[in-house]
Amino acid sequence: MSTSKLAQLEDLIRPLRSAIVAFSGGVDSSLVAALTSRALGERALAVTAISPALATGELDGARAVAAAVGIEHRTITTDELASAAYRRNDKYRCFHCKSELYEQLEALARRDGYAAVLSGANADDAGDWRPGLRAAAEHGVRHPLLEAGVGKDEVRALARELAIPSAEKPASPCLASRLPYGTEVTRAALVQIDRAEQALKSIGFRVLRVRHYGELGRVELAADELPRALAAPEPVIAAVRDAGYQRVEIDERPFRSGSLNVGVVSGGASS
Questions:
Q1: I want to staple 145 with a disulfide (CB 3.0 to 4.6 A). Which of 31, 124, 150, 251 is the partner?
Q2: What is the pLDDT of residues 177-186, one digit of tens each?
Q3: In Å, how far are 175, 181, 220 from 254, measured between CA atoms?
Q4: CATH of 175-261 given 3.30.70, 1.20.144, 1.20.140, 1.10.287
Q5: 9 backbone dihedrals φ, ψ, rounded to 5°
Q6: Measured between alpha carbons, how far is residue 113 from residues 46, 108, 110, 194 in Å?
């Protein structure tokens, strides 16, 4: 079954003849990058956008995955913080962010002769709050996984089959997703969130978010890691305070992707 699905995906990509993959290094875009490399060879290119909202370590991870799957890798710099519409952080923030990204990738594709831009959106994203998909539609971006009906569980299974290093990587959306809608996105806030999350990772936590509420940092941890923090909260509190938060709370509920989207739509988004 998986072999036939891999072949189906490659058959979707091969007629494009050349393509750029919007590449974060997460499992979805990594699978698309691997398939695009297999289908198009040297006419495949993975591009990672560098911005203040990119968490520490993500670029290094993306470079390692690109090398492992054999696709050429480049970086671009995006400046979504220059947009007042992005900074005001309403429920369409991702639309403004992705518009900036896809405009640059579209221009790169025109300049260097690539026929298409691909994303890692999968079939599960179709039911989520994903204004970035609207931006993709406006720029003609293709979504092979979504088009083939491949959801997240199957993405991970296919990535394992291809021995992609990020097959088990937890989702790591942009740092701006830690700010509640209506809270202005600033460079200082993104730096503070990143510092707090990196500090928690340095003491052994793996799946987490630090939600930014001004002076308060609220820590969300995965169900299997939460009991450790609740039993001995001092190291968690100290790590987040060292990042500049005056108050720290550990959410007693396990981390759930998209928790800040509650009330926007039923369902959620990967944040």
A1: 150
A2: 999 999 999 9
A3: 19, 21, 6
A4: 3.30.70
A5: -65, -45
A6: 14, 8, 5, 36
